[in-house]
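Schema walkthrough. Field components (list of strings):
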Amino acid sequence: MKRLTAHIIAIGSELLHGGRIDSNSVGIAEVLAQSGIEVKQKVAVGDHELDICTAVLSSATQADVIVTTGGLGSTLDDCTREAVAAACGRTLVMRTQALRMVQAHLKTRNRVLTPVMTRQAFMPSRAFILENPVGTAPGFSLKVGKAQLFVLPGVPREALAMAQVHIPLYFAKKYRRERRGLWSHSLNTVGISETEVQGHVMPLIKRYPSMQFSFLASTSGVKVTVSCWRVQELNKSDSKNIRPFPEGEGAVRNIRAALAPWLYSEGEERMEEVVGKLLASRSLTLAVAESCTGGLVAHRLTEVPGSSIYVDRGIVSYSNRAKQQLLGVRSLTLKQYGAVSLQVAHAMAKGIRKRSRVDVGLSLTGIAGPSGGSLEKPVGMVCMAIDGPYGTEARQFQFWGNRSEIKFRSSQAGLDFVRRYLLDRGGKKGDPAHG
Amino acid sequence: MKRLTAHIIAIGSELLHGGRIDSNSVGIAEVLAQSGIEVKQKVAVGDHELDICTAVLSSATQADVIVTTGGLGSTLDDCTREAVAAACGRTLVMRTQALRMVQAHLKTRNRVLTPVMTRQAFMPSRAFILENPVGTAPGFSLKVGKAQLFVLPGVPREALAMAQVHIPLYFAKKYRRERRGLWSHSLNTVGISETEVQGHVMPLIKRYPSMQFSFLASTSGVKVTVSCWRVQELNKSDSKNIRPFPEGEGAVRNIRAALAPWLYSEGEERMEEVVGKLLASRSLTLAVAESCTGGLVAHRLTEVPGSSIYVDRGIVSYSNRAKQQLLGVRSLTLKQYGAVSLQVAHAMAKGIRKRSRVDVGLSLTGIAGPSGGSLEKPVGMVCMAIDGPYGTEARQFQFWGNRSEIKFRSSQAGLDFVRRYLLDRGGKKGDPAHG
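Field assembly_structure (string):
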């Protein structure tokens, strides 16, 4: 059977001129792929009725599925409802069910319905209402020509939550006897360049010709994704479970082996979650002494729910005075080696571990730039140290990029340093056998 | 004269499924706007000849100008040349002038021409060659129907450099006697909802019918942008200078007055820069004691180059033990009021100011969620305090969103708290006359 195709239309004038980039479509494309629908085009248009209407009609002649995001709010520039009604030749009507949804959501936030907000309950006649589990504006779905159109709000977490609920549900009802989908698996590496990753994976690209391999470099590292389109016929017995896919799993196993020294997670798992799990599983506590990263490592660690169990504290010792007072770094060490040195990193890690009485102390000190560099210690030079139950380690890195990129790359390398320290040294708390 | 319209087509399969976002179009849209051309649509399509061809033909019926970016490299998946040739009904021919450009660029990088690279010298017949000042692949320009098409490579800095050179040049030749362009100005507010902002600005929307107003809500607050398309006739004397625009400046003055209590910056200036400038101009130093924000406030402050002048330190006192040890919060205060309370915020601010001997101490303590909330102290409740030369202040907030959003909104409100403290209390360091 022919694979279904989709267009995603992001609506908002700020996407054309405001310097803002549409990122909703990334998550929506993933949801579509999981339902076996291939995105063929992404479009961004301004908040103009005619432009939206033209885009919808143009996509309706090319794609089986259209998803729009944006322009469903209650402000005057929001005109997606009107544009879609025009595109389908229907009138806008107030839907009491939708109005009740708006009221119910406002109530959870202790707000009352104002006249202008009732706009959010208007929809093209006979449209199917899509509930918004996390925000005010409901969406809706209807046919435009032969295409099935899903109209979602523009707030990123609302658009994603609604896509995740409503799109799979619609296609699960439509295709009862089979499951279609893009099978894909990602592996996340750090400390290796995109070219080197490609070099390691190249033999596998030839060995698995039916698989697609893609490489994505960012300040977090290089992500390798292997994917393949599948159609499975369903028996009653496996209507809930996804059947194994030996070829894909074989490819993943081989990539894993080829990239093992740099692999820190798979799928969407972030470095701070990986480190958090390692600490939690060993009942270890952590404290961080940051200079150049300015709090970013602590911020990332505390993005993870439940991190208060293993994160005791962070110290952003930006001034030398703070390094002396809070971490006990000696003024002689600072003078002799400079604030950015393995010796000072070492003293910071030992200081924070001792003073906060945690299991693991991590320190980072470096030159984030754009100024402050020298021939000997250029911008991007960062020293890190760990003091913990398995002994002390210090490392020096040279990063590139602007201030913000150097800060992020440093935080990623620092967290990876903790990960490697815990894994390489194995053992449990109080068992420094490998130290 | 009718304003010219443009579509931008970004080409690359990774833009549809690889999680990568097209950012080239942001810079290209700016270049077009400066030439008086309004971008009406942005499109992303995969590296498939038919899809690219369809997108170009569809845009040619709607826009005066089309700019494509991507798919001009020498690898096998690059097929923009073929697709464009098909769309214009021309054949691809090898252009010796283009080949010489490719060779010349390779020479600067000490590389030699390989057979596969000659692909980059093929173009639709009679196309105008666009030199690439920073990379290998030249671009080209030609008519498709009534639209003028510019075909640029996908490497971001190459696409931008070529757009900046070739697009203004083409339209400067076409429109010798006038300058067209988009005038726009943004104002950034915090602590007020999008609906309320719109209510305040509404009378101005009516007073300035030729201006466009747009509103953009994010975790940073609400951004208001006012913009207007202008056509200036040029004398020889002002061919270089942009003339003032009294109507636009009047509108901005009025928005500024209407939103004064919530306005923290204009244009692209971020809150951490505003606070940094205020601190630097008054020669004040700052230290931050964070609990729920987990280092985010310190991280944002230190994103600003030169922040080491006024940021002395940050303390992420995630555990109660850290609050007692590092900030001198009394265990009785913690027991009596709980870690999330105005009293503890107060003690944290006083503690960090006193112990680090800075001018201003800021503290934040709250419940970032998703767990840890109660009826009395729900998720999103955050207490903040400032201790400084103009006295002590404490405030309580109730934020909403997920953990990450609550952290960011808290950091934004905390920095705004410092901004207001410094501005409201006026005066200079050591002059607590208004305290």
